[in-house]
Amino acid sequence: MDLIDRVNGHFLESIAAKQQAMDVLAPAVAVAAERMVACLMNEGKILACGNGGSAADAQHFAAEMVGRFEKERPGLAAISLATDSSALTAIGNDYDFDMVFSKQVRALGHQNDLLLAISTSGNSANVIEAIYAAHERGMGVIALTGKDGGKIAELLGPDDLLLNVPVPRTARIQEVHILLIHALCDAIDYMLLGGE
After folding, report:
1. Is 10 annotated among the ligand-binding residues?
2. Which parts of the chain sit beneath pLDDT 50?
3. 52 annotated as belonging to a binding site for a ligand
4. How far is it, in rounded angstroms, from Cα 112 to Cα 98?
5. What's the CA angle centered on 160, arms 173 and 64, to 5 degrees?
6. What are phi and psi of 141, to 5 degrees?
């Protein structure tokens, strides 16, 4: 296989993953966007967390909310729990790395808020702990996972939402996660601002 064929394989696999995700996730993404708008309109905020590429996705989502997506609008309340290096390192050092998000959820989260929990495997221990903390605080959870949904799929409550990308490869899951985040941002703006 030459290098061009290898690159083409990535495009084809990504297209197939996105098509598969669209077929199973579009209705749930619409519900997730409605819940996010309800949260924001009820003086709530969205706390987002994840590790590695999922931390970048949490930051990306918060940036699109606080700044803007594609249309000018007032900022919307969203915070990435993966960005405060002092809090992350203090909690990781003084307690345990599994608690870096849950401590922040307990400190910042309230009943009207939502947790956007991102884990490609569905098994990230610190994201799982954040979900437990969100439930303790009476918060709803929207989880972005992949593969079979992992442990996160098993611990979500009846009012939580699972957006599971049903493919095995982490790179493809991450590519679909960023598409889901953009679809959520667009749907939120559409509900708040109207549009074509």
Report:
1. no
2. none
3. yes
4. 24
5. 55
6. -130, 135
